[in-house]
Amino acid sequence: MDSAVFKRKLKAIDTSSLVDKVEKNLVEILQQKNLKVGDTIPKEIDLAETLGVSRTVIREALLRLRMMGLIESKKKKGSVITSPDLFGIMSKSMNPHILDQETLKEIFEIRLVLEIGMADFLFQRVTKEDIDELKQIVSKEPPVTDHHLFNIGHEVAFHGKLYEITGNETLKKFQKMLLPVFDYVHHSGLLGKQTELRNFVSHKGLVDVLEKGTPEKFRNSMRKHLENHFARLFE
């Protein structure tokens, strides 16, 4: 490698490193100023002067913050603080075909934890109309679902309604991202072989508990509903 090429490569590395530092410093500055969503951030020229770097470097760092959803450009207002769409950003990389096997298994486990942990929210917020809708969803499932582990169509309809009942919009968005990964892992061979069903509780059984039972009983029933997934993880 001749010296000219080496210098060009070295400069690129240095610039990247500088932008990394400026990006971090910009976030710290915004925190120190106690800026809130909708507030205008300082102009490029002022940020460049404060941090002692060129406007080009500031521009690159601000572009990163825009890509992260932390700021956006407004007409006649400049750049303003925004509330990032966390799951919109995450969903771009939540592709089961590009994630490593350990990450896929851990995402699979996250969904199991969420399903069992939502019981108290469900019992606080469920209505008679919600129960009726769940019964309608279950009525469209073939009887074989009592002896079947996982069907993506049934899961989206039934569990999607459960997440909706919680009233937690963040949970609902997260669930939509998790289901494709859950389905992929289930069929990918990453887990142990599908075992014979044991202590399996169907969707219909879960509706019965939600209508007449308690949060504790629902947690136990959901755990049994997911029993065979746990068996495949731990065998």
Structure report:
The chain is mostly helical and about 240 residues long. The chain has two domains: about 5-85, Arc Repressor Mutant, subunit A (Orthogonal Bundle), CATH 1.10.10; about 90-235, Up-down Bundle (Four Helix Bundle (Hemerythrin (Met), subunit A)). The protein is about 65% helix and about 5% strand. The chain has a two-stranded antiparallel ribbon with strand order 1-2.
Helix content range: 55-70%
Secondary structure tally: strands: 2
How much is the average pLDDT?
83
Q: What does the main sheet amount to?
A: 2 strands, antiparallel
Short description:
This protein has helices spanning 3-32, 44-51, 55-67, 86-91, 101-117, 119-125, 128-139, 152-166, 169-188, 203-212, 215-225, 227-234; strands at 71-74, 78-81. By secondary structure, the chain is mainly alpha-helical. It folds into 2 domains: 3-84, Winged helix-like DNA-binding domain superfamily/Winged helix DNA-binding domain (Arc Repressor Mutant, subunit A, Orthogonal Bundle), CATH 1.10.10; 88-234, Four Helix Bundle (Hemerythrin (Met), subunit A) (Up-down Bundle).
